[in-house]
């Protein structure tokens, strides 16, 4: 810390209790000056020779036949006046970052300028500020902190503005050229933590990070912090990521973790002002400078402290641009009255809508530039796939809420396009939890909830679980079993042909002979599944007998199913055999669901077809 010593005489200012100060001297004091509650017994000559204001006040007191002067609203109080008194008497006084602003304001109040005497106190303090204080990083911050209690004097003397300019200028310096002390308590990565000098292998140099300054300015009051950040941003030399890190650090420093502390009467107003200020300081880069997790946490606080509509809307706009970076935990925002759900479902729905609107906008721009590659680009967007996983994970968490209605559940699920979910395991998990926590759903509601899921996009493990899940409607279980039959048969047929096995869910031949990729273009109707089964069954019959080993394995795996699912599967397997025998039933199209097929239909086929029957077992 920088300091400056003034005067050379010993300190003769003595105290008598808390409210009396006097000069220890052979000469009797001849003037009484009261500053606040403290009375100073002093001599006229040393004071009048350096203070123009005291000259005026003493003249006025003499006219009133009084030797007492009252200094009301003296900047800096009695301690600042002591510094001025010691300077007038030539006593030793030390100025530093903590008292220099008070001394400067007091000297201005007493008019201790060059007009009265050369080298007066105002001049000496200005030299100290310019040559030392404003050149020091930490001293500039300390001085700026002391200016708040000395307003409006510190503002009128431009001390605040000069401190802010000094701080902002230093933050823009190339980190490689930083030579002054700063605070940086956060741990650096191992790669960045130590740089070894080849010429001095035992000396270790710690590089200066780009955000070296963010911790030090966190100690500033919110009003001063805002002015510093605005000045830093106005210079245009600071990266948005560093700005975002600075705002995050300040929020962590001053926003309490407890919800009760956030909304308490003693701190709610301050916290509201704090959040609104941080929001208005966000970097103007469409939210790219701040992490989505930080923005969502800030949104939570903004809702709790009832920040203004602009702040909440601005946060949601920025979050909507990078929702793919969020985590499920970030989206679990507590609901406020009059909502009855545990979490704010409507808010998440709005964020998803904003994200999809932004995505469609970027897609339109991209389609104008590359129309032939628009769909390919959309399918390849990893961000949309991340949002798909995010939505399924979020549904899995909020599904435990007994007050969550089926309409809200469906709306959240349908907020993203189908191709954002190449895998439906996460959605199935959420549906299973919702059905378990909401046993009172009607048959229509259960059907609507389960209709969100495409069984062809379930993995083998999820399909096995779904086949044994008694909470699912019978129709869904039938669909799962049928598709598993197709998948197993396709795998067996691939081994019979000697071809390398493919993912059974990647290609399936439908009734029209077209190749369907279930990852993004899978058919959703059960009629198509039936046609696929019939065509695949006919193909199996033409190619010969199926591998017996795979058949045995399939049957052994069937034993793992519960009795309800096993009976359904056995019935469907028999129906599949009957359909393979009866070609006329394949083309009739009379069966729209697995349960509508009866074994009696197979008897209508001619005797010539029976000669073509192949053994499946």
From TrEMBL:
Q: Start and end of every BTB domain?
A: 29-97
Has UniProt tagged this entry with the keyword Disulfide bond?
Answer: no
Q: Which UniProt keywords apply?
A: Ubl conjugation pathway
- List the subcellular locations: Endomembrane system
Is Ligase there in the keyword field? no
Organism annotation: Vigna radiata var. radiata (Mung bean)
**Name this polypeptide is given:** BTB/POZ domain-containing protein NPY1 isoform X1
Question: Entry's InterPro entries?
Answer: BTB/POZ_dom, NPH3/RPT2-like, NPH3_dom, SKP1/BTB/POZ_sf
